[in-house]
Amino acid sequence: MPNQRTFLDARRRMLGTTAALLGLSTLPRWALANEAAPPLLRVGFQKSSVNLVILKQQGALEKRFPNSKVQWVEFPAGPQMLEALAVGSLEFAMTGDSPPVFAQSAGKDLYYVGAEPPKPLSSGILVKADSPLRTLADLKGRKIAFQKGSSAHYLTVRALEKAGISWSDVTPIWLAPAEARAAFERGSVDAWAIWDPFYAATEVDVKPRVLTNGVGLSNNNSFYLASKPLVEQHPQTVKALFDELTRADAYVQSHRKEAAQLVADFSGLGLATVHRFIARRPVSPVKPMWPEVIADQQRVADAFFKQNLIPKSVKVADIVWKPGRTA
């Protein structure tokens, strides 16, 4: 019966095709994507970059981009990282709110490509447990340590504004986190503005008093920035990075103990410190810049310009990557 055989043969081919498609659907995303990633992908990160640290420890980007050489470069803070990005030593980096403002004001060639949700609990201004400083108004006339151009810089600006203190009424002590902690512990400064995990480590080890955190002052946003060549020539790589970062965050949320151990193994921080700073970190998927976070970042830029802390005003939206368009 040729008609029946023809029908059965066609049905077998259809079932075979369906099975093949179902099999493909179970492959990992990186196996399905037709991505032309750059031959060299240099990623700048800090100890606070939880999602990136997880990806590094798991070797996830090396699996996602098997034809690329992935290099991980650690920095003590954002300003140093964005300088490297601007001069072509990095393709991709994650930092806090203030470093991109200073970089843009200085004419650095880079783009905001994505962000995580706000983390106002993850930064604070610390004083010694026995310090006479009790309110933000008590900061007048005091020495405050922080990394220049960092998120802690903006937190300090906002805290002084709230207290009605002019910038000229305090003495900023420009120090990177490690040096600032040493100065804080020996009493060389009156207060220290800092972010996690340095904030959490000091809470665990030194037992300071928290004069304020970022609530009501700074959203302490985290941004992902990229070089112009990466944005213009490899936009699908940027989107793939977001996929992996969001997957890493889901892992942190669902495997808190294992994630804390990975971060501790990388950073050398104690587990108590890592659990403390991860606990106050909200769910943090990564996505392209959205209107509210752009507006919030513009307030950061305007605050620095108002205090004459950057040489010119900037429009944040001018260097925001818009997916689907060239830069």
Strands, count: 11
Largest sheet data: 6 strands, mixed
CATH architecture of the largest domain: 3-Layer(aba) Sandwich
| Mean pLDDT figure | 89
Q: Specify the structural class.
A: alpha/beta
Backbone shape: globular
Helix count equals 14
Strand proportion: 15-25%
Describe the strand arrangement of the main beta sheet, using strand numbers.
Answer: 2-1-3-10-4-11
Helical percent range? Answer: 40-55%
Question: What is the CATH C-level name of the largest domain?
Answer: Alpha Beta
For the record, give the distance between the C-alpha atoms at the N and C termini, rounded to a whole number: 63 Å
Uncertain parts: 1-34
Subcellular location: Periplasm
Family: Belongs to the bacterial solute-binding protein SsuA/TauA family.
Organism: Aquabacterium soli
Function: Part of a binding-protein-dependent transport system for aliphatic sulfonates. Putative binding protein.
